[in-house]
Every structure is written in C-alpha cells, then in structure tokens.
C-alpha cells in the first residue's frame, strides 16, 4: 500500500547509528572536562564560560541525537510511544514554565529556567518516558 | 478488541519473533497485541491476517465496549 499522502508518511527519524553517536557525545561531555580538570589545563581558567557553553551545546546535541534517531526495530508502536513521550515532556515543559516564576517569587529563590536548562530537562523527560514506556509495554 | 493471534500463531507453529519479523515489527509489539494492550493499525492488522490467510475479522474482533 503506497501512501504519498503527508498524513500517511511516517515521521522521518535519523538512522540508528546516530543514537550511538549521541551517546559518545554525551560521554565526551563528561570525560573531557574531567580530563582537563585533572590535567590542570589553562583552558578552564581562561575560557571557562565559553568552554561551559560549548559543553552544554554538545550535551544537548547528544541528547537530541539519542532522542530523534530510530530504534533497531522502529514500528508503529514505538512511534506511538514516542508521541506519548513527547507530549509528556511538552506538558512537563509547560508546567515548569508556569510554575518556576511563581515558585521563584514565593520562595525568593531564583530558579533558573533559561531555554537551555528547560529544553535539556524536557529532552531528558522525553528519553526517560520513552525508555520506561518501551520497557513496560 | 479481542484477537486470536496467539491461537493462530500456535496453529501455524511460529514464535512471536518469527511473526514479528514477517510483518516488520518488534517482538514486544506482537506480545502487546496478543495481551490486548495494543490495538494494531489497519495496515498491520491486514499484514497479520494475510500471513495467516484469514480475513481481518477472523483474527480481530470488536468487543462490546469498543
């Protein structure tokens, strides 16, 4: 059954090997700063902020590659689980966006809800729900 | 939705993995269908019924609350 219709076309995901690349990137974002710290390199003292931003970017890229690449067997049920997980993480993002300013205001504690932090949390939530729902299906 | 997947599979003497490979899904998906935790799409239902050389209605049956 060939369906050229937009609604019948499955969501395009990255090939499976991108998942491995994503994991390698995430491991590197933990290993590299540790290595630099242990070797007492000058990078940490001179360009600390830039280094942090680059690491954050790599971390979020790694998470996104894991989250948006195909599984070994990608079928309609994994697509459904993926969709439900994305909705859960979206709701989480919405709740955090609404509640954080109120919490910050009422407790006088500044809660960082900048784009990077929130999107990272949302991606982690998505991956958590996806893994959990896939495991318990 | 009730289904006779487990029975048909036993008649044909094939494992969940073999059925999954033949219709292009994971073994867990077949297991979820057999345990009535997941209702397959029309495409998958037709693929499964074609494999067992039966009509979709012979494999899948609506329940009263469907």
Give descriptors for this structure.
heterodimer; A: 137 residues; mainly alpha; 5 helices; 72% helix; flat; B: 66 residues; 434 Repressor (Amino-terminal Domain); two-stranded antiparallel sheet; 6% strand; globular
Fold and architecture overview:
The complex is a heterodimer of chains A (137) and B (66). With 137 residues, chain A is mainly α. Chain A has helices spanning 17-38, 43-46, 48-67, 76-107, 115-135. Chain A has 2 domains: 1-72, no CATH class; 75-137. Chain A contains 5 helices and no strands. The longest helix of chain A is centred in the last third of the chain and has 32 residues, at 76-107. Chain A starts with 16 loop residues before the first helix and ends with a helix. Chain B is mainly alpha-helical and 66 residues long. Chain B has a single domain, classed as 434 Repressor (Amino-terminal Domain), CATH 1.10.260.40. Chain B is built from 5 helices and 2 strands; from the N terminus they run βαααααβ. Chain B has helices at 5-12, 16-23, 27-34, 42-51, 56-59, and strands spanning 2-3, 60-61. Chain B has a two-stranded antiparallel ribbon with strand order 1-2. In chain B, α2 (16-23) crosses α3. The radius of gyration of chain B is 11 Å and the shape is globular. Chains A and B meet through α4 of A and α3 of B.
Helical residue percent of chain B?
Answer: 55-70%
Return the domain count of chain A.
Answer: 2
Largest sheet properties of chain A:
none
Count the DSSP helices of chain A: 5
Rounded Rg of chain A: 19 Å
Order of helices and strands of chain A: HHHHH
Query: What is the total domain count of chain B?
Result: 1
Going by CATH, the homologous superfamily of chain B would be lambda repressor-like DNA-binding domains
